[in-house]
Amino acid sequence: MRLVSIASGSSGNCIYVGSDTTHVLVDAGISNKRIEQGLNEIGLKGSELTGIVITHEHSDHTKGLGVLARKYGVPIYGTRETLEEISKQKYLGEYPRELFCAIRPDVDFFLGDLEVKPFSIDHDAANPVAYRIQHEHKSVAVATDMGHYNQYIIEHLQGLDAVLLESNHDVNMLQAGPYPYYLKRRILGDHGHLSNENAGRLLCCILHENLKKILLGHLSKENNYEELAYETVKLEISEGDNPFKASDFSIAVAKRDQMSEIITI
């Protein structure tokens, strides 16, 4: 099983998860050209995609959908409300709506030999989800665009082999930055984004000795930077109420304009 961030950030998100025979994208929020370049770097073509699972309808998660759908006829999975919103996005152009496959939170489904487990998150979107994806006894999760976390989310992130988790903003940078007040309130609210500190606190709840890789993703371009997210999360882990230190884990930041390493589990 492999996990690769092709792009992750406030300007565009696209994550690959796959096995030897099944190839899935979590979101397609960058250009089709960049998506195909990323796939090529891991030895795949767009025509080999099994499906695209969409977390929610915001453009930084859907931008490349139209071209992929027209070019390859790839099935697109999302909640009914998410798909309804995507169907209204004129910038995606024309593509076959029969590619849409409605899913529901907490109702698992299979794509090839991958078991996909969508679970609800709180974000200012129609009916957003994060995804846990399993292959045999291995599992990874992509969990971003969460205003907060709770016991339900913690339970869905237990026992992972790898995780890409949102570490969107530094609270002080956001509060002191140029964003208008309403936007600051939105980001900081329960339906906004997870801060660096809260990403670290959430990790403290799901760490275990077999967690092989942590990727911090969906960083804000204006209200965060890689070193700050990395060091803040490490500090929360090392000083948190858990038996681990940050040095016990492989932690990296997923970049907005570069692919991550290929994480193989």
Automatic annotation (TrEMBL):
Cross-referenced SUPFAM superfamilies: Metallo-hydrolase/oxidoreductase
Pfam families (alphabetical): Lactamase_B_2
Domain Metallo-beta-lactamase: 11-191
InterPro entries, alphabetized: Metallo-B-lactamas, RibonucZ/Hydroxyglut_hydro, WalJ/YycJ-like
PANTHER family membership: EXODEOXYRIBONUCLEASE WALJ, METALLO-HYDROLASE YYCJ-RELATED
UniProt name for this protein: Phosphoribosyl 1,2-cyclic phosphodiesterase
Record organism: Lacrimispora xylanisolvens
Highest classification ranks of the organism: Bacteria, Bacillati, Bacillota, Clostridia, Lachnospirales
